[in-house]
Amino acid sequence: MTRADARSSTPGRHLGNKEFTMRAISLTSLGLAALTALTATAVAGAAPADDAPATKPSRTASVHGSARVHYAFSPDDDIRFTIDAEAAPYSRPLPGLPQGLPTDARGTVSFRHVVAATGQIATARARVDCLVTGGGTATLTAVVTRSDVGPVGERLGFSVGEGRAGEPDRLGFSWGVANVDPEKTDEKGNVTAPRVGTCMAPAPFAPAVRGGFTVRHAELPPSPPAEMR
């Protein structure tokens, strides 16, 4: 797959019965407790700032690129995504976690969907709040800041996988696959869609047919910077 003109592609999203249905999900009390304990342990076990060696991360995790993807449920539609995301560990304070999380990130995701049958166009833009990488794969989330098809404030999940041995890159997006909570139903008895939490996304199921993405992996920092301790 060629990555030429990757940055010139325009982003996309699915319409009709596949509209935004995700909701932002807060950390569970169990997760909060675990993360709080982890951060506290890291801080308590760290050497004083004056004694600790002055080190900087050798690299920063990131995802950059643009691509048109093939979506199996709308094979004729033109769906494009652009992602510019970089890790910013411990930069987003949360209730009970004033130092933030090691997966904190910044950047933008934008997408554009042109429905082949009608010519209808939908676009949206979202602010990245979480990123985690593993080799040539990445999972990130972003909160919608502008949209002409869904409400602002929704958190959406994305995943990226770099292709190997000539295979195309791939991308996953949270509203593109079934995401239901079998244990919860609405007033009509139908299953409901759970909210998307930070860094939650399906596997990268949609292959890129034009363009591509570059994933830069970096290990998660085990503790906040010295000035935050």
Structural class: mainly beta
In sequence order, what are the helices and strands, one letter per element? HEEEEEEEEEE
Look at the structure and give the mean pLDDT.
Answer: 81
Percent of residues in helices: under 10%
Instruction: Give the strand line-up of the largest sheet.
Output: 1-2-3-4-5-6-7-10
| Low-pLDDT residue spans | 1-55
Instruction: Give the termini distance in whole angstroms.
Output: 46 Å
% residues in beta strands: 35-45%
Question: How many domains, in number, for the residues?
Answer: 1
Number of strands: 10
What is the overall silhouette? globular
Major β-sheet profile: 8 strands, antiparallel, barrel
DSSP helix count? 1
- Radius of gyration, in angstroms, nearest whole number: 19 Å
What keywords describe this structure?
single chain; 229 residues; mainly beta; 1 helix; 10 strands; 7% helix; globular
Can you give a write-up of this model?
Residues 46-65 are annotated as: Disordered. Residues 46-55 have a biased composition (Low complexity). The structure is a single chain. This protein has 229 residues and is mostly beta strands. It has one domain (6-39, 60-217). Helices cover 7% and strands 36% of the residues. The protein is built from one helix and ten strands, in the order αββββββββββ. It has one helix spanning 29-45, and strands at residues 62-69, 78-87, 105-114, 121-134, 137-147, 155-161, 170-173, 181-185, 191-192, 206-216. Strands 1-2-3-4-5-6-7-10 form an eight-stranded antiparallel beta barrel. It has a two-stranded antiparallel ribbon with strand order 8-9. β6 and β7 (170-173) form a beta hairpin. The longest helix is centred in the first third of the chain and has 17 residues, at 29-45. It is globular. Mean pLDDT is 81; it is low at 1-55.
